[in-house]
Amino acid sequence: MSFLGVAIVRHYERGVVFRFGRLRSTREPGLRFMIPLVDRMKKVSLRTVTMPIPSQQVITRDNVSIGVAAVAYFRRVDPVACIIAIENVQAAIGQIAQTTVRNVVGRSALDDVLSNTEDLNESIKEILDRVTERWGVLVELVELKDIELPQSMQRAMAREAEAEREKRGKVIAAEGEALSAGKLAEAADVIAEHPIALQLRNLQVLSEIAIERNSTIVFPAQFLDSVRDLGAFVARETPSAPSAQPATSTNGAADGVVSVG
């Protein structure tokens, strides 16, 4: 109804008034009156607009073809420039956003695209801000939301990740073996200094085995102790045998002498 001289401007809008085709003024929200059939008003929304950027094929710096989709958030901050400086600001931002995404991603390697997404988003946003500033538009945020990789590249990355996990597993196992060997060496030194510790360890092993109760195990610990005690007894008794042996030999020799005589 602006041609009748009455218009309602909503709180999130601004009204740009043209009189006989010339820019007249900008109207704030509320009920606004104009000269009928002379003034014309165009309303500009100041709310943030969500613009999806369709997926497009991009060749990265290391010659990998990927599909990249993004989303941009912008809002009009200068109602006059949005109308006078450009015909269709939303279509223009959509086109320049697609071109900027392709250029920025194309200058980056695949690893950077996958790992440094935040830096790419900031670079795209800065470029769009410089371009759209003269259109009275502020780009608030740009996000890469979908990156499509070729099937062959996905399989290669899966193999690389699997090999990396296997390498970490082997390194951790080797470190565990090294620590275990050091602890075993320390335990061997302690047992060598305190022989009773070995018997205590044997009893602990028997206690752990007895928990399962699903097998019969012969543990010759007492037999070994008996053999050790027997050897010690023989060692103690062996020195007394040579002392008795010369007496027998002397008697035999004397008997021999008497018999000869």
**SSE topology string:** EEEEEEEHHHHEHHHH
Distance between the termini: 165 Å
Q: How would a textbook summarize the main sheet? A: 3 strands, antiparallel
Q: Strand arrangement, largest sheet?
A: 3-2-5
Helix proportion = 55-70%
Describe the secondary-structure layout.
Layout: E1 6-9, E2 13-19, E3 22-27, E4 30-33, E5 39-45, E6 49-59, E7 65-76, H1 79-84, H2 89-106, H3 110-115, H4 117-132, E8 137-148, H5 151-193, H6 196-212, H7 221-237, H8 240-260
Antiparallel strand pairs: 1-4, 2-3, 2-5, 6-7, 7-8
Question: Could you characterize what this model shows?
Answer:
InterPro entries: Band-7_stomatin-like, Band_7, Band_7/SPFH_dom_sf, Stomatin_HflK_fam. This is Slipin family protein. Pfam families: Band_7. It comes from Actinomycetospora lemnae. Belongs to the band 7/mec-2 family. This protein has about 260 residues and is of the alpha+beta class. The chain is about 55% helix and about 25% strand. It has helices spanning about 80-85, 90-105, 110-115, 115-130, 150-195, 195-210, 220-235, 240-260, and strands spanning about 5-10, 15-20, 20-25, 30-35, 40-45, 50-60, 65-75, 135-150. The strands form three sheets. Strands 3-2-5 form a three-stranded antiparallel β-sheet. A hairpin with a 2-residue loop joins strand 2 and strand 3. Helix 2 packs across helix 4. The longest helix has about 45 residues, at about 150-195. The protein starts with 5 loop residues before the first strand and ends with a helix. The model is unreliable at about 245-260 (pLDDT under 50).
